[in-house]
Amino acid sequence: MKLQPSLRPPLQPWMGMPWVEAWNLPWPVTSEWQSTLAGGTQRLPRCLGVALAKELIFTGRRLSGMQAQALGLVNHAVAQNKEGDAAYHRARELAQEILPQAPIAVRLGKVAIDRGMEVDIASGMAIEGICYAQNIPTRDRLEGMAAFREKRPPRFVGE
């Protein structure tokens, strides 16, 4: 059997991203005689559980952005605007919320979450401890503590 390439971007690769915006993309799977490549058979069960992952993959059911959000596959579902860039604008809004945070702490938090999900919880806690230890000597940590004491917004510099 020859595998046909998808005519639209598959959702599966996005499941590994830090956050996901949906705008009613279909879930391309077996109903189109496509392979569920791009990690869908591995990522989907980890997100939804084995039974629901099998149901979605075996039936080829398409999910709207709202359904994907309700299942926890995406963080936000946005209605498309006339310009076709509603998800882009929502992603920018989210980025604007992240930007004022301490960049080193954000990066280390991402590492702790991503690596911690690959191991058992005890190992994940150890990874978190290692990441925290890397944050202790930073100027940003000291700035955050000073800003808290002085009741002012912090001014992080990424050091």
Automatic annotation (TrEMBL):
GO cellular component terms, alphabetically, are:
mitochondrion
Identify the Pfam families for this entry: ECH_1 (PF00378)
Q: Name one GO biological process term.
A: fatty acid beta-oxidation
UniProt cross-references to Gene3D superfamilies, sorted A to Z: 2-enoyl-CoA Hydratase, Chain A, domain 1, Lyase 2-enoyl-coa Hydratase, Chain A, domain 2
Which keywords does this chain's UniProt record carry? Lyase
Q: Which GO terms describe its molecular function?
A: enoyl-CoA hydratase activity
At the top level of its lineage, which domain of life is listed? Eukaryota
Tell me which InterPro entries the record gives.
ClpP/crotonase-like_dom_sf, Enoyl-CoA_hydra/iso, Enoyl-CoA_hydra_C
Indicate the family of this protein.
Belongs to the enoyl-CoA hydratase/isomerase family.
UniProt-recorded name of the protein = Enoyl-CoA hydratase domain containing 2
Q: Which organism is it from?
A: Molossus molossus (Pallas' mastiff bat)
